[in-house]
Amino acid sequence: MDVDLRKLRYFVAVARQLHFGRAAAELHIAQPVLSRQIRSLEAEFGAQLFRRDRRSTELTCAGRQLLEDAPQLLAAAEALRRRVERSADDRVRFVVGFMPGITVTAVARAMCGRHPGLAVEVVRTSWADQAQVVLDGRVDVSFVRLPVDQRGLALRPLFAEPRVVALPAGHRLAGEPSVVMAELGGERLLQDPDAVPEWRDLPVPAGRRPERARPSADTVEEKLEYVAAHEGMVVLPLSVAAFYTRSDVVHVPISDIAPNRVCLAWAAGRTSPLLAEFAELATELAASGAGGAGAGGGAVDERCGRRPGAVGGRSCRWQPLGSGHDEACAGDR
C-alpha cells in the first residue's frame, strides 16, 4: 500500500486538535472534505482511527499508533524534498546546525579544506527545534545539547561542559563560589523545567509560594533580561553564560548536577559519505580541543569549567558559504 502523505498530514492535524472543525481551519479546507479524507485513510489502513460522537473526538488504539509514527514519516518526506531542492543547481551543499555556545568554525573550515567545491552552511538552532531541524532536512547534521528527543536520530557524543545558574547581580547567592541545586529550589525557573530535571524534581520547599506563570521568552537574551529584572533564574551551559556576559547578571557554578553533554546528531539511516567524514572530523577536533564549546572551543574540564588552550575574548564567528544564515545566535537551551 502506498501511503498518501496529504491524508497523513490531515490525520496528524485532527489527531493533535481532536476536533475536526479546528483541524479543518488549520488546514484551510472545508470540514466535510477533511472528514472524507480521514474516512478514506481509515479504509486504506483497514482500521478505525477516531471515535467520534456529538461531544468529542478521540483516538483509537490504531490512531494512537499512527500518531506516534506519522510525524517521523512526514518529516522524512520533507527532508527528502529539501535535500533534492538544495542539489538542484548542481552545487554540493552541507548544512550544519548548532546550539548557542557551540562554535563550528574549525570543523567547517576543515571540511571545506578537504572539499574545495563544497558549500558549508550553518543554521542556529534552539532548545525547541534542535532535533526537528535534523529530521525535516533543514540541516544535514547538528550539534545538539542533551537531553533531546532521540527518536529518528543517530547521536555521537563529543564533549561535556559545566552548567551554571544565571542570577541577578544583587541576588543572595550571587557572590558564592558555587551552589547546590537544593539552594535554588525556591527560585523561579525561567525556562522549560524539562531542560533542568534536577530542579524540576526537587521537593517543593515548605512555604514556597505558588509558581507564577513563566514569562514568554524564547531566546537567551530575553531570559537574561528577566533575570536582570529579578524575575527568576536560568540554568545554562558555561559557554552560553560566558558568551552573554553583562554587568547586571552573574553566573554561579552548580556543583552537584551533571555537566551538559553535546552530541553530533543526524537522521538515522542516512549513509552519506560526507556525513561520516564530518562526524569523524568533529570527533577528532572535539577531542583535541580545537572545536566545540564557546570561544575557546573543545571539551571542558568538568572540575574547573576551563577549556584546554582557551584564551580571553570571543572568537571570530564563522560566516557560512552561500547562505543567508550567520552564527549570531539568539537561541537557548
Can you describe what's shown?
With 333 residues, the protein is an alpha+beta fold. The protein contains ten helices and twelve strands. The protein has helices at 5-17, 20-27, 31-45, 61-86, 105-114, 132-135, 197-200, 220-228, 238-243, 273-288, and strands spanning 50-52, 57-59, 93-98, 102-103, 119-124, 141-145, 153-161, 163-168, 234-237, 249-253, 260-267, 292-293. The strands form four sheets. A five-stranded mixed β-sheet has the order 5-3-6-11-7. A hairpin with a 4-residue loop joins β1 and β2 (57-59). α1 packs across α3 (31-45), α1 (5-17) crosses α4 (61-86) and α2 packs across α3 (31-45). The protein is flat, with a radius of gyration of 23 Å. The model is unreliable at 295-333 (pLDDT under 50).
Itemize the secondary structure elements and their pairings.
Blueprint: H1 5-17, H2 20-27, H3 31-45, E1 50-52, E2 57-59, H4 61-86, E3 93-98, E4 102-103, H5 105-114, E5 119-124, H6 132-135, E6 141-145, E7 153-161, E8 163-168, H7 197-200, H8 220-228, E9 234-237, H9 238-243, E10 249-253, E11 260-267, H10 273-288, E12 292-293
